[in-house]
Design a protein that fits this description.
Elements: E1 2-8, H1 13-25, E2 31-37, H2 40-43, H3 57-81, H4 84-102, H5 112-120, H6 137-151, E3 159-162, E4 168-171, H7 181-196
Parallel strand pairs: 1-2
Antiparallel strand pairs: 1-3, 3-4
Length: about 220
């Protein structure tokens, strides 16, 4: 199997779409998905990107702050799980529980989401204390350093690293909606051709669609 690391900020709807697409592709391309922290709040020095419209800045900053707290809990749960595979599994479960709550229509984005994620995954609520413990920023920033290496300095989320020989990676893909079925796999195959070519640096176009999350399931 090929290990594929996904660097994701849970508050980013584009990243959430990509994670759901990858979970569909993984069994059809023998991918072992590894889930890694990426914190927009840390990347933006606890501010907000100038690209965010003024009327959305407060909401964006609040979402990024809540997501940062969630990542601390995710990393604490990973550490408690022990083995790498178990850590990936618990991170995956928490991220999935988070996404179905955070991106639900009319969702109330507050601390209750964190509690709900921990409860849904059958974890001890004592893990919630990690949300206020900045010691858990160390594994987050460590993961971000890897993301910067493959996606570029101050890269965005998602960033993907494919542990081939040699390893390669990229920022994205950013899409809405993500393809499904055979088209989902075809997109992955195409991205692997581009990602393995060291002379390809960018491939962008306007974001024509809103990042509407896929249905729960």
């Amino acid at each position: 199997m090929t290990r594929v690391e996904v660097y994701v900020d849970p508050s980013c709807p584009w990243a959430w779409i990509t994670t759901r697409w990858l979970k569909e592709v993984a069994p059809r391309r023998d991918l072992e998905l590894g889930w890694c922290s990426f914190c927009i709040e840390i990347r933006d020095d606890y501010g907000v990107s100038p690209a965010i419209a003024p009327e959305r800045r407060d909401a964006a900053m609040a979402a990024h702050a809540l997501s940062h707290r969630a990542l601390r809990v995710f990393e604490a749960a990973r550490a408690e799980a022990g083995a790498a595979a178990a850590g990936d599994a618990v991170f995956d479960a928490l991220l999935t529980a988070w996404g179905h709550r955070f991106f639900a229509r009319g969702a109330v984005r507050d601390e209750s989401i964190l509690t709900g994620c921990v409860d849904t995954c059958g974890l001890d609520r004592a893990l919630l204390r990690a949300a206020d413990d900045d010691a858990w920023d160390a594994p987050i920033t460590g993961a971000m350093t890897v993301a910067y290496t493959f996606g570029g300095e101050k890269t965005q989320t998602p960033t993907i690293v494919v542990r081939d020989d040699p390893p390669h990676g990229f920022k994205g893909p950013v899409m809405a909606p993500a393809p499904t079925g055979d088209a989902a796999v075809a997109l992955w195959d195409a991205l692997m051709v581009l990602s393995r070519e060291p002379g390809v640096f960018e491939f962008t176009r306007p974001r024509a669609n809103r990042p509407l999350p896929p249905p729960a399931g």
